[in-house]
Every structure is written in structure tokens, then in C-alpha cells.
Specification:
Pathway: One-carbon metabolism; tetrahydrofolate interconversion. Catalyzes the oxidation of 5,10-methylenetetrahydrofolate to 5,10-methenyltetrahydrofolate and then the hydrolysis of 5,10-methenyltetrahydrofolate to 10-formyltetrahydrofolate. It comes from Ephemeroptericola cinctiostellae. There is one protein chain. By secondary structure, the chain is an alpha/beta fold. It folds into 2 domains: about 30-115, Leucine Dehydrogenase, chain A, domain 1 (Rossmann fold, 3-Layer(aba) Sandwich), CATH 3.40.50; about 140-265, Rossmann fold. About 40% of the residues lie in helices and about 15% in strands. The chain contains 10 helices and 11 strands. The chain has a 6-stranded parallel sheet, sandwiched between helices. Strands 3-2-4 form a 3-stranded parallel sheet, with helices on both faces. Helix 1 (about 10-25) runs parallel beside helix 10 and helix 2 (about 45-60) crosses helix 10 (about 260-280). It binds ligand LMY7XDAE. Ligand LMY7XDAE binds next to helix 2, strand 4, helix 6 and helix 10. The ligand Nc1nc2c(c(=O)[nH]1)N[C@@H](CN(C=O)c1ccc(C(=O)N[C@@H](CCC(=O)O)C(=O)O)cc1)CN2 binds near residues 141, 260 and 267.
Length: about 280
């Protein structure tokens, strides 16, 4: 293996120390950042993620509330809860864990969260602010990737970044953040012809497509930086990313692993957004 490992766990730990210090500073102004997490249904992975979010709040000295509802909660009931949290002065950040049950309109729910408390950065106002170069609250996963690149001193200005996956949560906001940092961005999707033609030209590849190990070493230019956003299970049921780590690590200059890469940064940037929302008071 020749690639340097971009250790998301270590970067997350360092960033959480900074957040903790800023939380203490806010306490001197009588402000205690608070996060409300809403979880609907019994998706086991979602349960793990929300419990890690709540634990991480405690670790940096933030207040959190976890509201868990059965899968038959109606959309109207959910909107009523969001409205109450929008008006709760002890709550600075609200997130509704995705995916939602199919019968609930995700867009309606995300737009119901006050943009000032939208610590996932998914509200149209926050997505639009990012798009027009005036970022407010930013989507946590791409925000975390930007921190990882910054921490690893990967040059972005003038670099060619290829993103594989164009979701609202990762691919699209990632493209906007990289563009704003001066990168030339290619945004690929599931219908892109000859994907490796694009990835082989990249200085930076961001894999966010949701297919286990689909980015292989032959698709990567020697020395490129590869960030793996995927969370999948391989044929043995083991957690893996969208990147075939073993073959890509032979050619890449730097690579983030799964687990221990982008995942811990997603949670850390949620804390950062909650802090930033509270600091604006
Ligand atoms: N409202 C939201 N829903 C979802 C988001 C989101 O940002 N906001 N993202 C994903 C899930 N997610 C956070 O919610 C998330 C996924 C994975 C991790 C993580 O730390 N993964 C670990 C491995 C964990 C494991 O063992 O399963 C790692 O990569 O090291 C954190 C957060 C969808 N929903």
C-alpha cells in the first residue's frame, strides 16, 4: 500500500475538542447549545446513528433530546412536533433522521424545520445559500469531507474533483463546496457513460454512489486523493465503502477508509452546525 490514510476518526476527535472549547465559551454568555433528534421507525442503522449523535452531544457538553416515534406516526403529527421544536428556545438544532417511512413526504418535513435550526443543512434556504456562495448551515457529510481535505492539506484551488453520486444530501452540496473552494468539479451520476474515463482524470475522487467497492484501483490516477462516503455491506456482511480499498490504496496518494473515515466526520459536523446555530443568537 502506498497511500496515506486520511483518518476521519482522528480529525473528528480534534474537531470535537475545538467544538467543546467553543461550547464552554458560549456557556459564559448563558447559552447552552441544544440538539433535538427525531427518529421514526425501527431501522437498526438509523438507531445506531442517532444514538451516536446523542452520545457525541454529551461528549462536547451539548444538551440533546431524542424523540423516538413508531413507524405509524402520521405526517401531521410529525409536523406538529417540528413546529413545537422550532419554537423551543432551548433547542438550536433539529434533525429528522433519514430515511423516513415511505408514506411521509420528506420534502414537506425538511422544509418545516426552521432554516436557522436546520443543522442537517437540507432546507431549501440553506441549500440555496450554499448554491449562491453564501453558505449558512451546510450539509454535514460534505462539510466533513471539506474538513478532512483541509486537515490533510489537499490543494483544492485549480484541482479537478470528480464526484460519483449526485444526491441532495452528499453529491450536489459537495459539488458546490468544492466549486466555492476553487476546484473544477465533475459531478457524475448512475447514468454517466464510461465513468472511469472521468475518475482517471481526477486529482480528487469523492465516491458517494452507494454501491459496495465499485471504485477500483484501475479507475484512479496515480497519486490522487480518494474520499469514500459509502456505507455498504460486502458479500460477507462486513461494513465497506464505495471504494475497493485494497486496490485503490495501491495507486492513490491519500485515501479515507470505511469505517473510520467520513462517518465520524458527519456526526462531528452536526455538532459544529448546532454550535454555529447557537453562536448566532
Ligand atoms: N438526517 C440525516 N439522516 C441521514 C444522514 C444525515 O447526515 N442526516 N446521513 C446518513 C447516516 N448518518 C447520519 O445520520 C451516518 C452514517 C454513518 C456514520 C458513521 O459514523 N459510520 C461509521 C460506521 C458505523 C457502523 O459501524 O455502522 C464509520 O463510517 O466509521 C455516521 C452517520 C443517512 N441518514
Amino acid at each position: 500500500m502506498s497511500a496515506t490514510i486520511i483518518d476521519g476518526k482522528a480529525i473528528a476527535a480534534a474537531t470535537q475538542l475545538e467544538i467543546k472549547a467553543r461550547v464552554s465559551a458560549l456557556a459564559t454568555r448563558g447559552i447552552h447549545p441544544g440538539l433535538a433528534v427525531i427518529l421514526i421507525g425501527d431501522n437498526p442503522a438509523s438507531h445506531v446513528y442517532v444514538s451516536n449523535k446523542v452520545k457525541s452531544c454529551g461528549a462536547v457538553g451539548m444538551h440533546s433530546v431524542l424523540e423516538q416515534y413508531p413507524v405509524d406516526l402520521t405526517e401531521a403529527e410529525l409536523l406538529t412536533r417540528i413546529d413545537a421544536l422550532n419554537n423551543d428556545p432551548a433547542i438550536h438544532g433539529i434533525l429528522v433522521q433519514l430515511p423516513l417511512p415511505k408514506y411521509i413526504d420528506e420534502h414537506a418535513v425538511l422544509e418545516a424545520i426552521s432554516p436557522e435550526k436546520d443543522v442537517d443543512g437540507f432546507h431549501l434556504i440553506n441549500a440555496g445559500a450554499l448554491m449562491t456562495g453564501q453558505p449558512r448551515l451546510r450539509a454535514c457529510t460534505p462539510y466533513g469531507v471539506m474538513k478532512m481535505l483541509e486537515h490533510s492539506h489537499i490543494p483544492l484551488r485549480g484541482a479537478h474533483a470528480v464526484i460519483v453520486g449526485a444526491s441532495n444530501i452528499v453529491g450536489k452540496p459537495m459539488a458546490m463546496m468544492l466549486l466555492q473552494a476553487g476546484a473544477t468539479v465533475t459531478l457524475c451520476n448512475s447514468k454517466t457513460r464510461d465513468l472511469s474515463h472521468h475518475t482517471r482524470q481526477a486529482d480528487i475522487v469523492i465516491a458517494a454512489v452507494g454501491r459496495a467497492k465499485m471504485i477500483t484501483g484501475d479507475m484512479i490516477r496515480a497519486g490522487a486523493t480518494v474520499i469514500d462516503v459509502g456505507i455498504n455491506r460486502d458479500e460477507h456482511g462486513k461494513l465497506c465503502g464505495d471504494v475497493d480499498f485494497d486496490s485503490v490504496a495501491q495507486v492513490a496518494g491519500a485515501i479515507s477508509p470505511v469505517p473510520g473515515g467520513v462517518g465520524p466526520m458527519t456526526i462531528t459536523m452536526l455538532l459544529m452546525n448546532t454550535l454555529e446555530a447557537a453562536e448566532k443568537l
